[in-house]
Design goal:
The complex is a heterotrimer of chains A (about 250), B (about 450) and C (about 200).
Chain A lengths: L2 E10 L2 E11 L2 E6 L6 H8 L7 E6 L7 H9 L1 E4 L11 H11 L4 H14 L15 H13 L5 E5 L7 H15 L3 E5 L3 H7 L2 E6 L2 E6 L1 H7 L9 H14 L1
Parallel strand pairs in A: 3-7, 3-8, 5-6, 6-7
Antiparallel strand pairs in A: 1-2, 1-4, 8-9
Helix pairs in contact in A: 3-4, 3-5, 4-5, 8-9
Chain B lengths: L1 H9 L3 H14 L1 H4 L7 H10 L1 H16 L1 H4 L3 H5 L5 H34 L8 H23 L5 H21 L25 H23 L6 H27 L2 E2 L3 E2 L17 E3 L5 E3 L7 H12 L12 E2 L28 H13 L11 H13 L16 H9 L2 H17 L9
Chain C lengths: L5 H10 L2 H17 L1 H4 L4 H20 L7 H4 L5 H26 L6 H22 L6 H15 L16 H21 L10
Helix pairs in contact in C: 1-6, 2-4, 2-6, 4-6, 4-7, 4-8, 6-7, 6-9, 7-9
Classes of the chains: A alpha/beta (about 250), B mainly alpha (about 450), C mainly alpha (about 200).
């Protein structure tokens, strides 16, 4: 298992953002759904080793992120795209990705090639020398994806990766996810239910910091039988689970 | 690290600052009035003093760069990378330091290139240059630490302004006699007199102090890094302690250095130490008044002759005429001119300012006994000095020869004499005049 | 131009972190007061320190001109120039008042009138810098100008290029300072601080 989480809780002051989450995820694409404020981003940040859990245990890629050395090893094989992507406007696309390649301790001799490959995989090869401040929001998002995959991660965490992408780019992105998911664990946090339905093998639904559903997209669809809210089967399943959680 | 540093150097906020710094250096007093006498020692001090322009800007820029991760909201992205956070921060700082050092060294190169074309003796003195360089690096590190500690848009300007205030304040202490103030990066760290060997002790002390401060700042940066390992933080603490020790050692050395008072040797404070004379062969020119100077001032001979010979014209052929003017050593003096026969304490020959002072002092020295200051000249002596100056077309310097103290009618009477009459009068009265025994009534 | 509603003005001042700037201005005035021991003479150090403190206050005013919203604010229909003028005059007035109090309490090597004039002029320079280069660089030209004036003082050169070093009664210097202030306020009120996309975070 690339992700093993038991009893994970994370609070901020008096508020608990993630409450007693249990999760085991192996290779493949794992979708994380939930309304705003459900705790998806906080969970992702814990998995990305940005913040530690308040309690519970986490093992990533077979290692314990609480130990410094193991955390460093995890980070060498981790890719993370946060919801709000910060960037250095004067960097070019290539420089930004190469910068993160170096920070991920890809040997300098390979970093340039890895960066170039990552930029190509997100179809920004023709804009490799463009400064980030000249890019549209969708292109910036793709740059963010490029830096997340530059080290061919074993664990890839993506928070709202398709925000700003046009439909064609979303299709290409889903194909990329499936390709990466063949050899790594990909966790995608998104509001777009159809992305989850198409790209993900497993899906979890969070509400109010808790995991209220964990199964396949088909199982989520089944939960929506007879439910009237939602325009598509998966949406109805999503709405049904949420309604049950709120009740 | 090298590749990372290369990326940081290409994108450092120092790049847009370079034209600003270049403009400031071009407009600085040093650039616009490179000391007229091209002494390698004074030029070396000059380049060190350019830190007052470079230091504040690089400190402010470093503070700005330290705040970059937060300002650009990339903290989460950076935190989840395995690269040691301290090394990453140091790469950002190092990029600023590289550009700052380059700016400073280019400035040094330009000034030294100009000096090479002007100087007639000696060679570059590198200790003040090194002192300036280490102070620039220390400024970047202190600015970076301040920017990390207090991230915000106001930090960079406050750091920049605070740096300049600190430098100026230390200089003011030094002017007030506080020895600690000599650690200011803009305090001249070597004596400028070409007559004596350069004592680099204060420069060395400054270098040690700045290196110590920079090391302590790096240590503090490591110590405060929440996401660094405990071992890294402990090493940082050790480095901070070592830096403080180094800075203290530098401070101690500065206190013991005999170099003070703007390059003078303070023999009253350091009686055991004395400047070591440097042998030289004077260069001479001029007739009928031969003027001999240290070879470092060779280029000033013509100006000196043009300035002083006319003053002595009425004295030619009389006992009052000096046999020559020879520049002599003066203990620890910064001043480029001390005339051996006449103990002048003039200023640098800067035509726009001090030539009049020099000529006035010279005229007074011609009519007084050696060692007599301008204030002690008698009425007759003042009148004769005023005459000598006026006939040379020089208006006396009011601070030395106030018009109210000069009996202009006596001076005019001397002027009214014909050449042979004046010659005879000086021949008869030269000795008494210098001895100060003549009164106004004794003047023609 | 109609005045914006008071509530909007209050919100606008908050977005510009006016309270923080006021604290910075108060701290600068306190520094002026605290520096009295060193700035009571008319020597080079005394004058340069007072100029630096004026530049610091000016920077605090101009840095606040930074627009944290970028395009979003520019496309709103509210009268931005009126809001910006209110913000700038609030801060400039605060700075002048604080400096006046500091100047009244004790004497410095430079007259109170000169200190106020220099503050006004440096604020204008800082605002012009913010308008042309960006609020984050508002400190650079004022600081460089202080260095230039210090150099000229050292060389005993005094002309209108170094108007801050002239006596408080000098009308030409006052006219220059007020012109700079007016130009700076006008520029930043009309266009805001320069705001490339790179400065929106």
């Amino acid at each position: 298992m690339n992700i093993e989480v038991q009893g994970l809780t994370r609070g901020f002051g008096r508020a608990t953002a993630v409450h007693d989450v249990e999760l085991s995820v192996d290779r493949g694409v794992f979708g994380l759904l939930g309304p705003n404020g459900a705790g998806k981003t906080t969970l992702l940040r814990v998995l990305a080793t940005v913040i530690p859990p308040s309690s519970g245990s986490v093992r990533l890629l077979g290692r314990d992120p609480a130990a410094h050395r193991e955390r460093r090893e995890i980070r060498r094989r981790l890719g993370y795209l946060p919801q709000q992507l910060g960037y250095y406007p004067n960097f070019t696309v290539f420089e930004f990705v190469e910068y993160f390649a170096l920070l991920k301790e890809i040997p300098p001799a390979r970093a340039s090639r890895a960066a170039a490959r990552a930029v190509e995989r997100v179809h920004l090869g023709d804009r490799a020398r463009a400064k980030l401040r000249t890019l549209s929001g969708g292109m910036l998002r793709r740059v963010g994806i490029a830096q997340a995959i530059v080290n061919d991660p074993g664990l890839l965490l993506l928070d709202e990766p398709t925000a700003g992408l046009d439909p064609e780019q979303r299709m290409e992105f889903r194909a990329l996810l499936r390709e990466i998911g063949e050899s790594a664990t990909v966790v995608v946090s998104t509001h777009l239910v159809e992305d989850v339905g198409i790209a993900c093998d497993r899906v979890a639904l969070m509400y109010d910091g808790r995991l209220v559903f964990h199964g396949s997209p088909g199982e989520l669809t089944d939960r929506g039988h007879g439910h009237t809210v939602g325009d598509a089967p998966l949406e109805r399943g999503y709405a049904a689970v949420l309604a049950q959680a709120r009740a | 690290m090298r590749r990372l540093l290369a990326i940081e150097v290409r994108h450092s906020a120092m790049l847009p600052m370079l034209p600003v710094l270049a403009g400031l250096l071009l407009l600085s007093p040093i650039a616009r009035h490179l000391t007229p006498v091209a002494l390698w020692t004074s030029r070396s001090n000059d380049v060190q003093s350019t830190v007052q322009a470079i230091g504040p800007f690089v400190a402010g820029t470093a503070a700005w760069m330290a705040y970059r991760e937060r300002r650009r909201a990339v903290s989460d992205l950076l935190v989840c990378t395995p690269y040691p956070p301290l090394a990453r921060r140091l790469a950002t700082w190092a990029a600023v330091a590289v550009w700052a050092a380059l700016c400073y060294l280019v400035n040094v190169g330009v000034v030294f290139a100009i000096t090479a074309g002007q100087a007639t003796w000696g060679r570059p003195v590198l200790w003040p240059v090194l002192s300036g360089l280490t102070s620039v690096v220390a400024c970047t590190m202190l600015g970076f630490v301040a920017g990390k500690a207090l991230p915000g848009r106001l930090t960079a300007p406050l750091v920049a302004i605070g740096t300049l205030v600190a430098m100026a304040a230390m200089m003011e202490w030094a002017l007030g006699g506080e020895w600690l103030g000599r650690l200011s990066p803009i305090y001249p760290s070597i004596g400028e007199s070409p007559f004596y060997r350069v004592d680099p002790s204060l420069s060395q002390a400054q270098v040690l102090c700045y290196l110590g401060v920079a090391a302590a700042a790096v240590g503090l940066l490591a110590l405060a890094g929440r996401r660094d390992t405990r071992a890294a933080r402990l090493r940082g603490g050790a480095l901070a302690a070592a830096g403080l020790v180094l800075a203290a050692a530098g401070t101690g050395l500065a206190l013991r250095s005999p170099v003070g008072d703007f390059g003078h040797f303070d023999r009253s404070a350091r009686p055991a130490s004395a400047p070591v004379p440097v042998a030289y062969t004077p260069v001479c020119a001029g007739s009928p008044l031969p003027i001999c100077v240290h070879p470092a001032f060779r280029r000033e001979l013509a100006a000196l002759e043009a300035a002083l010979s006319p003053v002595t014209a009425p004295l030619a052929g009389t006992p009052a005429m000096p046999s020559g003017v020879a520049q002599s050593r003066h203990d620890g003096s910064l001043l480029p001119f001390e005339f051996g026969d006449y103990q002048l304490r003039g200023d640098t020959i800067v035509p726009y300012q001090a030539l009049t002072i020099l000529r006035t002092r010279f005229a007074l020295a011609l009519v007084t006994a050696p060692g007599t200051g301008p204030a002690k000249a008698g009425a007759a002596q003042r009148a004769v000095a005023a005459f000598l100056l006026r006939q040379a077309g020089v208006t006396p310097e009011p601070g030395l020869l106030p018009p109210s103290t000069v009996d202009t009618s006596a001076a005019q009477r001397l002027a009214a004499l014909d050449a042979s009459g004046r010659h005879a009068w000086f021949a008869a009265h030269a000795t008494a005049l210098r001895a100060g025994t003549l009164t106004l009534a004794d003047l023609p | 131009m109609n005045l914006p509603p008071r509530h909007l003005i209050g919100l606008h001042l908050r977005t510009r972190q006016t309270a923080r700037a006021v604290v910075a201005l108060a701290a600068t005035a306190a520094a002026v007061r605290a520096s009295q021991h060193w700035t009571s003479g008319s020597g080079l150090f005394s004058q340069v320190v007072l100029l630096l403190l004026a530049a610091a206050a000016a920077t605090a005013v101009a840095t606040g001109a930074h627009n944290p919203f970028g395009e979003v604010e520019r496309t709103a229909s509210s009268p931005l120039p009126a809001l910006r003028v209110t913000h700038l005059l609030t801060l400039t007035g605060t700075a002048l008042a604080a400096t006046a109090v500091a100047a009244l309490i004790t004497t410095y090597g430079v007259s109170g009138a000169a200190m106020l004039r220099n503050l006004a002029g440096f604020t204008g320079i800082a605002l012009l810098t913010a308008g042309l280069l960006g609020a984050h660089l508002a400190w650079t030209v004022p600081l460089g100008y202080v260095l230039y004036c210090g150099g000229e003082l050292d060389l005993h050169v005094g002309n209108l290029w170094t108007w801050p070093t002239r006596p408080g009664s000098d009308r030409a210097a006052l006219a220059i300072a007020l012109t700079l202030l007016a130009a700076g306020v006008a520029l930043v009120s009309l266009t805001g601080a320069r705001d490339r996309r790179s400065e929106q975070t």
